[in-house]
Amino acid sequence: MKKFDVLEKEYLKILENIDESFFNILHPDSKYKEGLSGLFLASEPDEYWSAKNKILIIGAETRGWNIKLTQGYSLEHYLDTAIEKNKAFFKKMMSTPRTKKITFHDFTRAVADKSGSDGLIYCNLFCFAWKEKSPIKSKYFEQIKNISSALLNVQIQYFEPNIIIFANGSSSTIYRREFFDPALYANGQSYESDDVAKNQLYKFTYDDKFLCYRIQHPSTIRGKKSAILARKKLIELLPDAFNTID
Description:
Layout: H1 5-15, E1 55-59, H2 75-95, H3 104-115, E2 120-124, H4 141-159, E3 163-166, H5 173-179, E4 185-190, E5 201-206, E6 210-215, H6 224-237
Parallel strand pairs: 1-2, 1-3, 3-6
Antiparallel strand pairs: 4-5, 5-6
Helix pairs in contact: 1-2, 1-4
């Protein structure tokens, strides 16, 4: 079993070389004043390493994600606060009553109901939002992209998930492929025989290590009926939380 401070040190190693103005809202040149959200960092569920199913969901949900510090700024304090915010928020999402709405966390709750929540990790393709939206149009996007790629890499290497679900939307497909080289995709499979279009759900192995599924962002409006069908199919494909007895 790994200790989470291993990942925290990796986070720190990546971020200590980044301009403080990306994190410190009191910095005279703070990017927060221009519309940058707080930093999104994945946390670790308390029972992660004993969980039967370890599933990492990569979304695009930073929105107005803000980090409120309880003391003067330091990168270490900022990281601790960002991690705790993720953990508390995701616990809240997991305990929220189930509805028939189609949102990102309706999807994460559906995954938890099928495969268990102890091994569920929630992270984002991009670690910042810009003016509560995608950071793609931000003038700082190159920096955001580089930071995001580095953070995702250490998260995946640390958590070693059984399954990765890419649910970050089609508008960021080009960047997902930058982060995760398609040359390392293998054993691709679509579900068109189940009336699910390939652009809605696709299965593949990444780097000979990780079973992956790619779906549209769970709250997508375009092709809504097709997207709902694809999500239902994906939930069927995911492993059960508990062993069943025939």
